[in-house]
């Protein structure tokens, strides 16, 4: 079975309580549940992880990356500065999709750059929590196409 790591960074544990204009009212537990349900429908499994600490995210990637087939990551505020996360992702050699609930390209200048995006399969931003589902489907399609070759 295909295994996808779903990683969320700082403050994403506060979804549903944060600025609803930017992030909506859906909680992280709701997002993780929806992604896991859709993955199951598509014949995949998801292992979700969230931390407010960069080192914990790196540890998770290093511990679980060898078992996984791909990664969905919303690095939150570490998107712009998380070089150790990027290095851990690159070390896995796995396909990665960079996900953001809000449209980071329409926000403050400092939020518009992602250290992960240039190395990712793609980036989905601004489509709300459903962006995770679109990212999952794109990632699983990519994995399936590569497995067929």
Detailed description of the structure:
The chain has helices at 20-23, 28-41, 54-64, 83-92, 130-148; strands at residues 2-8, 44-50, 70-74, 96-100, 122-125. The chain has one domain (2-148): Dehydroquinase, class II (Rossmann fold). 34% of the residues are buried. The chain has a five-stranded parallel sheet with strand order 2-1-3-4-5, sandwiched between helices. The mean pLDDT is 94. The chain has five helices and five strands. It has 149 residues and is an alpha/beta fold.
* Fraction of residues in β-strands: 15-25%
- Overall tally of structural domains: 1
What value does the Rg take, in angstroms? 14 Å
Helix percent reads 25-40%
Order of helices and strands: EHHEHEHEEH
Q: Indicate the mean pLDDT.
A: 94
* Termini separation: 18 Å
Number of strands: 5
Q: Identify the CATH architecture.
A: 3-Layer(aba) Sandwich
Q: Which sequence of strands runs across the widest sheet? A: 2-1-3-4-5
CATH class identity: Alpha Beta
Ranges where pLDDT stays below 50 over 5 or more residues in a row are: none
Helix run count: 5
Main structural class: alpha/beta
CATH topology: Rossmann fold
